[in-house]
Amino acid sequence: MESLDILAIAAHRDDVELTCGGTLIKAAARGQRTAIIDLTQGEMGTRGSAQLRAQEASAAAEILGVAARENVGLPDAGIVSTPETRRQIAVLIRKFRPRVVIAPAPRGRHPDHRVAAELIRDACFIAGLAKIDPATAPHRPTKVVHCLTYREDFEKPTFVVDISAEFERKMAAVRCYASQFDGATQAGEVYPTSEPLYDVIRYQAAHYGSLIRTRYGEPFFTYETMRVDDIAALEVSTF
Q1: Looking at the DSSP assignment, which residues form a beta bridge with residue 220?
Q2: Which CA distances in Å does 103 have to 4, 52, 77, 239?
Q3: How far apart, in whole angstroms, are the C-alpha atoms of residue 102 and residue 32?
């Protein structure tokens, strides 16, 4: 398979749409190859079913413009980071050979999200070890970035992607999960405010956009310091 520019890996179907859907839409429109790996089938979800969520995920993937979407089938509400699960994810990383991997926030209220962040980051490293799976060629992504959408409470974003032009398509992808979100006031890391979930997503995206002086944005965190070669080209006005 042709190498990817960006591979988004998340714990549950719908996590990618909620946290970095606009970024994937923007990348695809730029001609970059993107894909999604969902670690679980969402079988423990209070609403809907794993089968229905699979259909919803497929519809959302069309809107996001990804080249592929795969499901690992790890237990929902039971993701663990073990040598075997790290190897499973590492093999998929070798298959897709992405330059950048998008992972969940390092902290979160859902155990699957927190564990997945560590699992994915470790798998990216393991994927570069030749003897992990001799049948596949080693590949280690250049960059791992973590979604901070709804999780800005523990760390400021390292950077924010302007998704003003992509936001309505992002919302169309989110709305594909009607079984999960129609009539809901919370989901995943989205804390309830008593207002409809769709409105809260819009408010949050507007907040992130305001950080970079745009209408809508999606925030990300990296452990590495970002490099700047031309300080005179820096964007986002101080005043």
Answers
A1: 147, 159
A2: 15, 24, 17, 33
A3: 14
Tens digits of per-residue pLDDT, 104-122?
999 989 999 999 999 999 9
Biggest alpha carbon–alpha carbon distance for the chain = 55
**Domain regions of the chain by residue span:** 6-233
Sequence-distant (≥ 6) Cβ neighbours of residue 184 within 8 angstroms = 47, 196, 197
Check residue 188 and give its pLDDT.
85
* Whole-number average pLDDT of the chain: 95
Q: What is the pLDDT of residues 13-28, one digit of tens each?
A: 999 999 999 999 999 9
Q: How far apart are CA 82 and CA 147, in angstroms?
A: 23
Cβ-based burial of 197 (10 A; exposed 0-12, middle 13-18, buried ≥19): buried
What is 69-131 written as a DSSP string? EEEEEEPTT-----HHHHHHHHHHHHHH--SEEEE--SS-SSHHHHHHHHHHHHHHHHTT-GG
- Is CATH 3.40.50.10320 correct for 6-233? yes
pTM confidence score: 0.96
140 pLDDT higher than 70: yes
Instruction: Return the closest-CA partner of residue 25 out of 163, 216, 211.
Output: 163
CA 186, distance to chain mean position in Å, is 18
Burial grade of 224 (CB within 10 A; 0-12, 13-18, 19 or more): exposed
Q: Distance of CA 54 to CAs 62, 77, 193, Å?
A: 13, 17, 28
Give the pLDDT score at 165. 98
